[in-house]
Amino acid sequence: MYKTILVPIDMAHVVEGTANVDLAASHCAQGSKVILLNVVEDIPYWAAIDLPAGQFEKSVELTKTELEVIAKASGMHMDVDVRVGHSYDTILKVAKEKNVDLIIIASHRPGFQDYFLGSTAAKVVRHANCSVLVVR
Questions:
Q1: CA angle 127, 37, 90 (to 5 degrees)
Q2: DSSP secondary-structure letter at 12?
Q3: Which of 25, 63, 77, 78 has the smallest number of CB atoms closer than 10 Å to its CB?
């Protein structure tokens, strides 16, 4: 069993993320900690300038609220974290910061560009210093 589990959730695929939360619950030891993480991609300055004032911050807060709803629905106490950055880098950074034992991450059917660039899940698997469970 694992003491600290990180579950990155892509808000565009909440159903898979919720299933991963349930999976995390089944891998927990008593007293374990589960961290739900969403990474909001940073918006380039040239694109952000056209957004209404405070729109980006509102988006981050809405995402945090949605993660808190998922955590509450699970029936377990879970930490919720929303970060801004590149997905795989941020997932790995949080895993290191929080001394994570297991990352449970969803993998989607790869598109053509993923065969050349690699998906977020693939990058996490290659570079993580802990166990990674990829759910497809």
A1: 40
A2: G
A3: 77
Q: How far is CA 15 from CA 21, 23, 118, in A?
A: 10, 13, 23
In Å, what is the CA distance from 127 to each residue of 116, 122, 131?
A: 17, 9, 11
Provide the pLDDT for residue 66.
94
Strand order in the sheet with 2-8: 78-84, 28-40, 2-8, 102-106, 131-135
pLDDT for 98 equals 97
Q: Is the pLDDT of residue 115 over 60?
A: no
| ∠ Cα 111 112 116 (to 5°) | 115
Asked whether the predicted pLDDT for residue 83 surpasses 90, the reply is yes
Other CB atoms closer than 10 Å to residue 95's CB: what's the count? 24
Torsion of CA 80, 12, 118, 95, to 10 degrees: 0
**Interatomic CA distance for residues 52 and 123, integer angstroms:** 33
